[in-house]
Every structure is written in structure tokens, then in C-alpha cells.
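Per your request, structure below.
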């Protein structure tokens, strides 16, 4: 892609998350143009229109049917940015990739490992780009930790402990996120998906055994969750998700290595490391974040490697599949495939 070429975008979804992303995209209007949007909700489209009006721009047309959009606008598009409920991600990403578009896909990538493997196959067959918009994998904090772990500088991973909490149960009562048919899960697969993904990214290997418990707390989907796992290397992992906390939202991940202890967050909010011989954690300087959209453009132009490829999404999807199977059997141990999925 030429440095001066404007990237022409189809925005799939006009909800609150999509509107947040559009504000960022419009901040790079010299590089990007939203050509068309796709949302069946007239109200969501009207709210999206306000953002373009504030920026002094005409609102792009809304074609609510994706297949029609791809038929009528394909020659005017380069990229699809998909920001829709979780269960819609696979079919929408598949259609956009097969139409020859590069895709930026909101988290979680898909709902099952089968869907994840299929998207990777389609990406490879079409020769297109697929980036998953996970804050953690896209953060300089997590990328810095990943580099340090892979270099061996911190020693081998022994244990990982991660937890996240939020007053999610009440905040999203009646929301589509608590409708299992389109959310694909509850708190563990919504806010908790950041934890599952960032842990999967950091360890850079598959789980071989999982035991999990999910508790709906009288909601249609899980609100509380606890996961114990063993990695292919033998390292042990525990993850806890409390979606019925007091009004708050925060997280922590600790990675215990043979030569250091890492402390970070599931979104890459911070990064501290305590090396062997040191008495306390020290903050780690990292490069400034360049944001989701600008990072996607940098990947697409070949400036940087894809920091959040679907291979990480596949590892996370395999983990989520195992969590659901184990939880349905009241914590019975589930044994997974042991093949290492290399990051693409």
C-alpha cells in the first residue's frame, strides 16, 4: 500500500464501540475514509451520523445487508472494520475476507476454535490481512513482555495468575452481552476475553489440560468464573473472573518466571518487573501506544508485524472451548491437543 493512498473503509456495526473507533479513524482522515456503514438499527446509524456531523463530514450511507454492501461497494473498498456482537464475527469476517478485503475484527475474534481455524484458512487462501482488535495484544506493554519472555531473559514460565473484576452483571442487565445466542458467553467471554487472550498471547503455547467452573448467578450467562490449566511446557495457570463486583473494573496478571516476576494487566494497562535479587517491582518503560486504527494501518503498510493475528485468537478459542466443556461437567479435567500454534 502506498504511504499516500487513502484506505477506504466499510464499518460493520454502528454501536457504542464502533462510534468510539470512528472518532479515532476520523482523526486520521488524511489516511482513511469511511465509505459505507452496515447496521440494521436506524437509531445506531443516527448516533453514528452525529459523530460525522461533529467532524464536519457527511454521514456515509448505511447498507444494512452485508452481502448487498459487498456486492455494491466492493470496488470502492479496501478494508472492513467489524464491530458487532460476538456471534456475528465469523460469518461477517468470512464474507469480507472472501470479498478480497483486509479485516480489522473486534474482540473476541470468534466463538469457537472451528470458526478460528476456518478464518485462518480463508485468510491464507485469499492472501488478505486479519488483525484482531484486542487491547492487550496491541499494547506496547504486552508486546514488550512477550519479547522478553521469548528471548529467555526472564527465564522459563512457572506459573501464571490472572484475574479481572467488574460490576458487569448489573451494568449489562438486559444488554445483548447477556444474550448467550449472540454473545457466545458471559462475563468470562466479554471482559474476561481480554484475560483469556492476553494470557494466551503471553505464554505463547497451548494448554493441554483445563478444569473450569462458571456460575450464572441467576443470569442467562456466566457471571463468575474460575479456570485452572496446565501448559504444554508444564507451567500452571489460574484465571478468575468476577462479573458481580462492586462498581469497578480492573485486572492483574502475574507471570512467575525462574528469573523474574512480571505484573501487568489484561489490557496492558501497566507493566512492572521484579528481577531476581531485587526487593520490589520496577516500572518498565515502553513505547507510546499508537492506537488500534493507526496500528492496523502500520501493519497493513508493512511497517510493523501483526501484533494480534488470528493464530492467537485460535489459541484463545481452543481455551474457551475447553472451559465450556469442563464447566458443563462441573470442573472435569479436559485434555486438549498439544500441538503448538505458532504466532503468525
Amino acid at each position: 500500500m502506498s504511504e499516500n493512498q487513502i484506505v477506504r473503509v466499510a464499518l460493520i456495526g454502528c454501536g457504542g464501540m464502533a462510534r468510539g473507533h470512528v472518532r479515532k479513524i476520523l482523526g486520521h482522515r488524511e489516511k482513511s475514509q469511511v465509505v459505507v456503514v452496515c447496521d440494521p438499527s436506524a437509531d445506531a446509524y443516527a448516533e453514528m451520523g452525529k459523530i460525522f456531523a461533529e467532524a464536519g463530514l457527511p454521514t456515509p450511507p448505511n447498507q444494512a445487508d452485508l452481502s448487498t454492501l459487498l456486492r455494491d461497494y466492493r470496488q470502492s473498498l479496501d478494508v472492513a472494520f467489524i464491530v458487532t456482537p460476538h456471534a456475528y464475527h465469523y460469518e461477517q469476517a468470512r464474507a469480507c475476507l472472501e470479498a478480497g478485503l483486509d479485516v480489522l475484527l473486534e474482540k473476541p475474534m470468534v466463538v469457537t476454535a472451528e470458526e478460528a481455524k476456518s478464518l485462518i484458512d480463508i485468510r491464507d487462501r485469499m492472501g488478505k490481512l486479519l488483525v484482531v482488535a484486542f487491547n492487550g495484544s496491541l499494547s506496547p506493554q504486552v508486546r514488550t513482555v512477550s519479547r522478553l519472555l521469548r528471548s529467555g531473559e526472564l527465564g522459563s514460565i512457572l506459573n501464571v495468575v490472572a484475574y479481572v473484576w467488574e460490576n458487569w452483571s448489573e451494568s449489562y442487565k438486559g444488554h445483548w452481552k447477556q444474550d448467550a445466542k449472540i454473545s457466545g458467553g458471559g462475563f468470562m467471554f466479554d471482559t474476561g476475553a481480554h484475560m483469556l487472550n492476553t494470557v494466551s498471547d503471553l505464554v505463547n503455547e497451548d494448554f493441554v489440560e483445563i478444569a473450569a467452573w462458571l456460575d450464572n448467578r441467576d443470569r442467562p450467562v456466566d457471571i463468575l468464573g474460575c479456570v485452572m490449566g496446565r501448559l504444554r511446557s508444564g507451567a500452571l495457570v489460574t484465571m478468575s473472573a468476577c462479573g458481580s463486583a462492586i462498581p469497578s473494573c480492573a485486572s492483574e496478571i502475574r507471570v512467575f518466571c525462574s528469573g523474574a516476576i512480571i505484573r501487568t494487566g489484561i489490557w496492558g494497562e501497566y507493566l512492572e518487573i521484579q528481577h531476581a535479587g531485587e526487593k520490589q517491582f520496577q516500572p518498565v518503560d515502553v513505547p507510546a501506544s499508537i492506537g488500534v486504527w493507526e496500528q492496523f494501518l502500520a501493519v497493513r503498510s508493512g511497517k510493523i508485524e501483526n501484533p494480534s493475528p488470528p493464530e492467537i485468537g485460535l489459541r484463545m478459542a481452543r481455551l474457551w472451548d475447553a472451559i465450556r466443556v469442563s464447566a458443563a461437567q462441573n470442573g472435569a479435567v479436559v485434555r486438549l491437543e498439544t500441538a503448538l500454534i505458532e504466532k503468525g
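The chain is about 35% helix and 25% strand.

Regards,
D.
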